[in-house]
Amino acid sequence: MNNEENGPLDNTAKLRQVGGTGGGLTFRRLQIFWAVANASSLTRASKQIGLAQPTVSQQIASLEDIVGMPLFERRSNSLELTEAGRQLMRHVQKVLESMQSLEDGLGAIGDGSRRTLRLAGLNSILRVLVPTAMEALHKKFSEIDYDIHESAPAEVIEMLYARRINLGLISSNSIAPASAGFEQIHICTDPYVLAVPSDLDLSGVTDPSRDLSAKDQDVLFRSIQFAFGTQHSRRVQAWYDGLMPGNRPFAQARSFEVAIGMVRAGLGICLAPAMSCVVGDRVIDGVRLYRVDFPARDVVALLPKQYLRQELYSCLIDELGAAGRTYAPPPASETPPFLLKPTPEFDPAS
């Protein structure tokens, strides 16, 4: 590692030393630096940008040679920017924003060819909110077409970092508090419900072991869960453990829609966002919904901050927000008596 005896960067003086180290100051190196700075980890950054960790480490080392001083400090299991790194980050942010704006504007140059909006998100959010927003946006921007990816939250973040999409639609509950480098805009809230097979009637049940048959008890105590991420999975399991002692995780699915399909087949029950339980404006056949005391899903849009200065993206956000405001959760039955106990507190550190 280089020392900092030369002091902090003097504006961009150090950045002009681009010819002496392995390819110089390349755009790709700036992208890698930006990813590492926002991920605070070589491992996470390498996954997000699709490069091997040794390659990422080598590129950062080369960039430090060019600048002439360390850009990161190791703190426990994370990396933190040095003063030189923070100064470089301000320059890099402007460069990447300018390049993104150039790429987005190429379609409007010359013959005004069509522009493509690249979106990714959870299936239920894409199904319920995006079509309404697309219809409204088309009236203002008829030359726009769409490339839409159904993806898990972690994949959405990776695609944003890799600049393969312009905007992600996920739940803020499923990501780190700061998805650094991206603007996070609230779209709507989506309550959780308990989805059970339609022939499992929990109305008036105060004690499942007494009020339900052995067969129904077996179904009730098999939980089908969505593999959202470690913290979300632990929060869901804490809910089951606190309110339904003796439950057992029966299956993990990579989408709520697959989980709901298992519920329809009578394989178990699922704590799921209400959006995932509807087709159009109707509850999926073969499923019965109950209200529960569980934190609602906060649906958010994630996008690079500079996009909000562009009319197309600001209009898209407005239309998504309008679609979110008109969203009405599907009807659900009252909470079964045996689930009216206080919701157990979840300790993320436990």
From TrEMBL:
<dbReference type="InterPro" id="IPR036388">
    <property type="entry name" value="WH-like_DNA-bd_sf"/>
</dbReference>
<dbReference type="InterPro" id="IPR036390">
    <property type="entry name" value="WH_DNA-bd_sf"/>
</dbReference>
<feature type="region of interest" description="Disordered">
    <location>
        <begin position="328"/>
        <end position="350"/>
    </location>
</feature>
<keyword id="KW-0804">Transcription</keyword>
<keyword id="KW-0238">DNA-binding</keyword>
<protein>
    <submittedName>
        <fullName>Transcriptional regulator, LysR family protein</fullName>
    </submittedName>
</protein>
<dbReference type="Pfam" id="PF00126">
    <property type="entry name" value="HTH_1"/>
</dbReference>
<feature type="domain" description="HTH lysR-type">
    <location>
        <begin position="25"/>
        <end position="82"/>
    </location>
</feature>
<dbReference type="InterPro" id="IPR005119">
    <property type="entry name" value="LysR_subst-bd"/>
</dbReference>
<dbReference type="GO" id="GO:0003700">
    <property type="term" value="F:DNA-binding transcription factor activity"/>
</dbReference>
<comment type="similarity">
    <text>Belongs to the LysR transcriptional regulatory family.</text>
</comment>
<dbReference type="GO" id="GO:0032993">
    <property type="term" value="C:protein-DNA complex"/>
</dbReference>
<dbReference type="InterPro" id="IPR000847">
    <property type="entry name" value="LysR_HTH_N"/>
</dbReference>
<dbReference type="GO" id="GO:0003677">
    <property type="term" value="F:DNA binding"/>
</dbReference>
<dbReference type="Pfam" id="PF03466">
    <property type="entry name" value="LysR_substrate"/>
</dbReference>
<keyword id="KW-0805">Transcription regulation</keyword>
